[in-house]
Amino acid sequence: MPLEEYARKRRFANTPEPPPGEQSTPTANYFCVQRHDATRLHYDFRLQIDGVLKSWAIPKGPTLDPDVKHLAAHVEDHPVEYGGFEGTIPAGNYGAGSVMLWDRGTFDLLGDAAGAEQLARGDLKFRLHGEKLNGDFALVRMKGRGKGNEWLIIKKRDEFATPGWDVESYAHSVLSGRTQEEIAQNLPARKTKRKTAGAADRVWASSRPAKRSVKPAAAAAATPAPAKKKLKSRSAI
Length: 237
Ligand code: MN
Fold this sequence. Notes:
β8 and β9 form a beta hairpin. It is globular and about 40 Å long. The chain starts with a helix and ends in a 15-residue tail after the last helix. The protein is mostly beta strands and about 240 residues long. Manganese (II) ion binds next to β2.
């Protein structure tokens, strides 16, 4: 039961996160990245393989820079329904804090081996078709380290590789256009009709993604980033 750990950690009456099996299955080969402002800010990277979202927590976030390798802690499988989730997990719950749907799209596995086989051997290669992340990547398990859940995410050199690429320059939701703070405050989506059902802080995957009128780089230059939580932790989940 791959989703037992996911379900065991959560009380679904107290969190807007979806229980397993609540909604219909999204696109096959879905991938998403959620920016999660929990105890420590991190990015949750998820690939749909064999009916669940295989998941890694990346303290420094994914990158298009092929010269850096970021730690990716392999964590418990999430239900496919989680792939559309954005909102705030209330205090006192597992992973309490705001969750931004930072990127989403589809991916193709590279090579002939099935996803389960690539996972088992600790060397997963794939091509992303996202709104922010594109091109070829590898997730590689580090040998002989800690608890055995430490992997590295690596951007391959291709036409999408961008030396110096800064993940924090793209800190807005592909679902609602909101910043992390706007999500934490339950503010409405930007420049898009708010499509909600049920709890006010639920934003459904059926919403159209909002396009920001200001380019992220320009916005970052105009608005100096506030003192951010350090991204140095190696254990943030
Ligand atoms: Mn997380």
